[in-house]
Amino acid sequence: MEWWFSMEVLFMQDILVVDHLLKRFGGFTAVDGISFAVKKGEIVGLLGPNGAGKTTTIFMLLDFVAPTSGDIEIFGLHYKTHRGEILQRLNYSSTYVEMVPRLTVWENLLVMANLYLIQNPKEKIWETVHRFGVAEFVNKRYEDLSQGQKTRVFLCKAFLNDPDLLLLDEPTASLDPDVAALIRKEILIAREHGMTILITSHNMAEVEEVCDRVLFINHGIIVAEDTPEELAKKVRQIRVNFMMKDGQKRTMSFARTSGFPATADGRFVTISVDEADIAYLLSGMAELGVEYGEISIDKPTLEDYFIKMSHVGGRT
Amino acid sequence: MNWRRIRAIIQKFWYSTRRDIFRLFDIFFWPVIELFIWGIFSVFLSKSQVDGVNLVTMLLGGIVLWSFFTRASKDISLAMIDELWSRNFINLFSTPVTMAEYVVGALIVGFMKLIVSMILMFLLAYVFYGFHISSIGFYIIPSALGITVFGWTLSMVVQACFLRYGHTIEVFIWAVAALVQPFSCIFYPLSALPGWAQTIARMLPTTYFFENMRSMMTGRGIHVGEIVLAYGLNLLYLLLAIVFLNRSFEHARKNGNLVKNN
Fold first, then answer.
1. Is A210 helix (H, G, I), strand (E, B) or coil?
2. Looking at the structure, do residues A79 and A126 belong to the same domain, yes or no?
3. Of A94, A97, A116, Cβ closest to residue B95
4. What is the total count of domains within chain A?
5. Distance from C-alpha of A177 to C-alpha of A185, rounded to nearest angstrom
6. Is B207 within the bounds of a domain?
7. What average pLDDT does the segment B104-111 reach?
8. Which of A145, A260, B184, B250 gets the most CB atoms within 10 Å of its CB?
9. Which DSSP category does A243 fall into?
10. Total domain count for chain B?
């Protein structure tokens, strides 16, 4: 089954192909010759610290910023000759842009539906506002909405034209956890219907949940590309938590002399070690005769990888 | 009241003013323009042989026609800047809408607003000053249209500058009408201008429309050749403005201004 699945992915059509994309603003290189492809139905996360080049990349994919060199192919088409066709099948949502403040939610969405030449726009808007829990404030002015409500309205806009490619910039920022969960559910449903999604997010748990693949970008270059699980595995440092009964000082001293970072909080001690050193740590503690009531191990997550990679610039 | 805090506020204005050439406009540009227009008008009045009634009619005719220009000169630039102020620009242009579609839409809205405000203006001018549209006659159609088109042209130029230079250019939206006004001979004839200013005035389509308005009102008729010349200039400037706007849009895409200004 897995073999068939990977073969299926292999032969899937590339919806987005980015080839040696470079963007320079004067002497500053924002994006440094990145290349990647996104296949139909894939959800790909574009991660990286602030200023890494994510937003510039997204804006180049939307044709707002002209690349210095390199090539972008969306649906096998280029902006230079097929801007209208590409944007008709694409949509975008970001926490950092707004709709017209004086217009109601309904009016804003109706304008958008008409710009996308949507058939039966009113029906489509109703369907979308119910889907994202926006129906109850559809007659409110956009400027009177909370940030969370605005984000939901923007997601309605993003799904209005049933895009083949959706670019989501921080889609669940400012949302309550239950609404964020609803959005993630909708993203996964959209993928089942064949939608391709490129997503940026600072919520690593979210990326782990929805993304098939992650591109980690830093200083304008892609420093890593893999599944969220495989990227997390690249962080070998794990945290071992103890609830101490006896020998807390000896444990901290042992950790220090062994070169393991350790913190103590009341009766709880956390020691960070390389996976390979767990046996050494536990046997050393046993030799010291320390006693602990509970032990738990925190495996590395994508967030750990994010933190690690945000502080280095090199490729993995 | 704390003087140190007041000094800090003054400091803030000083820093922002000295780094922004367009804020300096407020200090130097407007007084010069006012002096120029009303100075020339006063000289014209002192030498003029026109009787009082005709003078008032000519002034009102000038004001009415000029309002077509002031309105049109803001149509596109204000519409676009409104998108940027409300941070809706990226939202809008990430759809398949083209710049040409946007400009045409903004012009249609501008034209409808223009008609409504013109009807109101003609009514008020008639009620309060007895100014009747018949004093301009059918000439109102080609002159108002020509003046409006030139206003739109300059509005496009301002928008193009905005795309290139960002928010600092905003003051130009309101200044552009005043920039053209002294040379358009709205309230005084071309001959009242000094030589160097006449050269500039002859390059503006608006000059010919206002000159012919006065000519018509004083019973000397219209010079068709001048109207044709004015439309020729209008067409030339409109084409140049469209090219400039397109190039500026591309320039803004290259240097990131398109998203920086949002």
1. helix
2. no
3. A116
4. 3
5. 12
6. yes
7. 84
8. B184
9. E
10. 1
The reply to whether A173 and A156 lie within a common domain is no
Containing domain of residue A287, as a range?
236-299
Residue A112 CA, chain-centre distance (Å), reads 26
Query: Is B2 a member of any domain?
Result: no
- Residue from B217, B221, B248, B246 nearest B100 by CA: B246
* Residue A1 banded pLDDT, cuts 50, 70, 90: very low
**A71 and A12, same structural domain?**
yes
Q: What is the mean pLDDT of chain A?
A: 87
**Which residues span the domain enclosing B192?**
19-260
**Cβ atoms within 10 A of the Cβ of A64, count?**
21
Nearest C-alpha of chain A: how many angstroms from B24? 28
Domain boundary among A115, A142, A160: A160
Identify the contact set of chain B against chain A, taking CB-CB distances under 8 A: 86-98, 250, 253-256, 258-259, 262
Of B91, B96, B258, the CB nearest to A84: B96
Q: Quick check: is A42 in a domain?
A: yes
CB-nearest to B86 from A64, A100, A116 is A100
Highest-pLDDT range among A70-84, A229-243, B14-28: A70-84
Closest by CA position to B191, among listed B29, B31, B49, B30: B49
CB A43 within 8 A of CB A87: no
Q: Do A66 and B250 touch (CB under 8 A)?
A: yes
Span A257-274, pLDDT tens digits: 999 989 998 889 999 888
Asked if the structure places residue B5 within a domain, the reply is no
User: Which residues, 6+ apart, have CB-to-CB distance to A169 below 8 Å?
Assistant: A55, A58, A92, A93, A94, A95, A96, A200
Taking an 8 Å cut-off on Cβ atoms, the answer to whether B94 and A91 are in contact is: yes
Residue B8 resides in a domain: no
pLDDT band at B85 (very low <50, low <70, confident <90, very high): confident
pLDDT in tens, B125-164: 778 777 777 777 778 888 989 999 999 999 899 889 888 8
Asked if A62 and A203 sit in the same domain, the reply is yes
CB-based contact B259 A91, cutoff 8 Å? no
A7 plus A84 within the same structural domain? yes
Q: What is the pTM of this model?
A: 0.77
